[in-house]
Amino acid sequence: MDAIEVEGLKRRYAGPVRAGRRAGAAEGGFEAVRDISFSVREGEIFALLGTNGAGKTSTVEVLEGLARPSAGTVRVLGLDPFGERALVRPRTGVMLQEGGFPSELTVAETAAMWAGVTSDARPPGEALELVGLGGRTGVRVKQLSGGERRRLDLALALIGRPEVLFLDEPTTGMDPEGRRDTADLVRGLRAEGTTVLLTTHYLEEAEQLADRLAIMQAGRIVASGTPDQVVAQRPSRITFRLPAGVAPERLPLSVPAAADGRSVTVKTHELQPALTDLLLWARENGVALEGLQARSASLEEAFLEIAQAGNRPGHGDERAVMEVPA
Ligand SMILES: Nc1ncnc2c1ncn2[C@@H]1O[C@H](COP(=O)(O)OP(=O)(O)OP(=O)(O)O)[C@@H](O)[C@H]1O
Questions:
Q1: How many CB atoms lie within 10 A of CB 226?
Q2: What is the pLDDT confidence band of residue 326, given thresholds at 50, 70 and 90?
Q3: Ligand 1: residues whose CB is within 6 Å?
Q4: Atom 10, ligand 1: which residue's CA is nearest?
Q5: Confidence (pTM)
């Protein structure tokens, strides 16, 4: 049994269809999640990525038991998070986008209050230490910075020693050190066997942290797999400048180049052979390739390409779905 199982999930918001043509608009409401399936194994870090409004939060809320699916099934630890909320809730930790705690309380009071309503709670001081707020216990919540509030939200999500942890944009507003600390903490939790599902807009974070990920676009999963698998679907890039007087047409045919003046970009799924051909050609012809760079695609490039494809006019319900077997 996987820790999280999602099968054919749809989530529709009731109400009138908003003005304009939106993917997902249908009679009697708006379908924010449109038949998605994925699973998260025990002890795995899984990232749900997507542009604003892609449906990530709508999905996570169903997993957290805050909303009922319009169609499909979800299971968390083998249980229905909505129908069996009383059983699931004590075994999960939730860090929402907006914590919304009473701002007059201090950090320590807030953590103690939370621990007071949690069975088998971690000592509040320990949870605050874990997120680096050990030195801020006497500060009122309203005086915390945005990043410190996110740390407090995370501490509260950890107080119940959750088996499954939901992190909705956990590092938004954190400085680079906070993001790095949070990444280390999440890795530490994984080492203890905690299953983590996170949403994030920081693609580098997802690339470094996630064992597997899914990219959502307009309510659907359009790419999924390990970060390497998702990135491997995208071409690598070689860039350089040709010396004046050397026309791009002289490049070997095996190197699929696009030139803008002297600047040349090669996009290829065969980086090593293309680079070898290019370098041999350059040596044989005595051509200097200025500013030569060769690199694999990044998750950010893969993501932007998917997002741009989704925004192209005429891009409707049917899209090329890139599924990578788990
Ligand atoms: N209560 C609601 N009623 C109607 N539509 C909603 C409601 N909540 C969200 N939506 C719509 O559902 C879609 C998905 O929203 P959701 O918040 O799940 O996206 P997201 O991927 O989490 O975005 P973000 O990255 O901005 O947090 C959006 O188009 C949003 O406007």
A1: 14
A2: very low
A3: 13, 15, 30, 32, 50, 52-58
A4: 32
A5: 0.82
